Amino acid sequence: MAAAQAQSLSWDQGLRSDAPERYTVVRGDTLWAISGRFLSHPWQWPEVWQVNPQIRNPHLIYPGDVIYLYDCNGRPCLGLERGQGEVRLSPEVRRIPAREAIEPIPLDAVRHFLRDHRVIEDPEALDELAYVVAGDDRRIISGAGDRIYVRGDLQRGLRYGIYRVGDRYSDAATGELLGLELVSIGRARAERSEGDIAVMELLSANQEVRNDDIVLPLEEYELVSEFLPRAPDHDVDGTILAVPGGVRFIGRLQVVALDRGRRDGLETGHVLQVEQQGERVVDPRTGESLRLPGTDAGLVMVFRPYEKVSYGLVMRAVRTLEVGDRVHNPRRGMEVAQQ
Questions:
Q1: What's the CATH class of domain 237-328?
Q2: CA 34, CA 102: separation in Å to the nearest integer?
Q3: How far is 56 from 77, CA to CA, in rounded Å?
Q4: Counting Cβ atoms within 10 Å, is residue 182 exposed (0-12), middle (13-18) or buried (19+)?
Q5: Best label site of 30, 81, 132, 155, fewest CB within 10 Å?
Q6: CATH for 116-217?
Q7: Threshold 0.90, pTM exceeds
Q8: Residues of each domain in the chain carrying CATH 2.40.10.410
């Protein structure tokens, strides 16, 4: 492979002061974590490991590979040693099973979340969706293996998700309703219909299915497994809306809901800095109420943008994050702790 020059980084900027000369990749590593050993900002790995920004995550790294620093025409580059001989990272793509390569981020956390959560962007459409009207033998709650009756237009033989309304996402400043969170209760298959009443078999349930639960076709959303982390190319200023599940205090690798979405320019892979609001104090001379500057507290990467809201994964948290913390474009001028 050809050498990849770190065009935007120099030896004294962008690299961690304690960056190792060599690092051997181990099972369980992620590209983000490996980059964090070398770079002050791990999400900048595409600027070091590829020349062409149009190529999505071309570097495929495996346990046992060795990443090392070397001089590339006066700038730092990352080299890669495999089992036989020495190669350099480049924008060439090799077709290999994804399970063998090191993941860009801990994807299991994202996969599990997407299976169990989704957003309705038009809450007014909620009344038009199919819903559970009864359980077998007049039960008001049902479990896996039971039959349920659903009112709505369902297709025989298809599998559906059963959901319950969770959080209502609203803009704190304007009051605009941004969407409704739906939490997965289980899955069912439509067996037959009479009029607008369908008989369904419950295939799985992680909670008891109740009357009025919502029935929807399973969401066809393919998880992007080759994230290209990057800062938004325009200013984004929003807040953490909620933590699905009702948790208030937030740590690393937790999912958060943000009050910005596709209409605000957010895309999969966009990295945002979390800033905690500064304390309010009283000026000892004038008696004025003053707000102290905010404190950088972490990084969030967007993995599922909707029109008005987004879900993001906390990739770094140097302090406990909270609902209401501000998110904005990341600053590059400060070295951060490895995560």
A1: mainly beta
A2: 10
A3: 19
A4: buried
A5: 155
A6: 2.40.10
A7: no
A8: 237-328
